[in-house]
Write a structure and sequence with these properties.
The chain is of the alpha+beta class. The chain contains three helices and ten strands, in the order αββααββββββββ. The strands form two sheets. It has a six-stranded mixed beta sheet with strand order 5-6-2-1-8-9. Strand 5 and strand 6 form a beta hairpin. The protein starts with a helix and ends with a strand.
């Protein structure tokens, strides 16, 4: 009984290090719609590693400075290449709900690519047990992968 209680308390105190990224192809106008959800405190800690100091209070009102900071962070941590061409994303919507930061970004791509490379480095320098869940959907092609500190990149063959 005591052993079970100790394990339960330890599990409650041990944080979960996980993000979710969904990448969906939108044919008109030929873009990837990317959704990312992560814990705000983890984002702040990881962003701090690059010398950028933000606080939870900074997210109480969305400003262009905060939006630019988050876009720059994502640009360095989530690399998407379609047919070996690097794509650049722009935040369409961003919100903080309780302890989570979620955002929708648009990555113009044009036509349906034959292959998509995704490199997800979100918090891989911060936590050795990091899990970045990535789902890619292009028409009928849909697959999901778990990326870690050891496996940060995956190439998906669409056609």
């Amino acid at each position: 009984m005591v052993r079970t209680l100790i394990i339960s308390v330890w599990c409650l105190m041990h944080p979960v290090h996980v993000t979710l990224t969904s990448i969906d192809f939108v044919p008109d106008p030929g873009r990837f719609s990317v959704f990312i959800r992560l814990y705000l405190d983890d984002f702040l800690s990881d962003n701090k590693l690059s010398g950028k100091v933000l606080n939870v209070e900074d997210f109480s009102v969305e400003t262009s400075d905060i939006r630019n900071e988050v876009e720059n962070y994502i640009a360095g941590k989530l690399i998407i290449k379609a047919d070996n061409k690097l794509l650049t994303g722009k935040i369409r919507e961003m919100k903080v709900e309780e302890i989570e930061l979620s955002m929708n970004l648009d990555y113009p791509v044009g036509k349906v690519p034959d292959s998509v490379l995704v490199q997800n480095l979100i918090m891989t320098d911060l936590y050795p047990d990091m899990s970045n869940m990535v789902i890619l959907k292009v028409y009928d092609f849909e697959t999901g992968v778990k990326m870690t500190t050891e496996i940060t990149e995956q190439t998906f063959k669409i056609k």
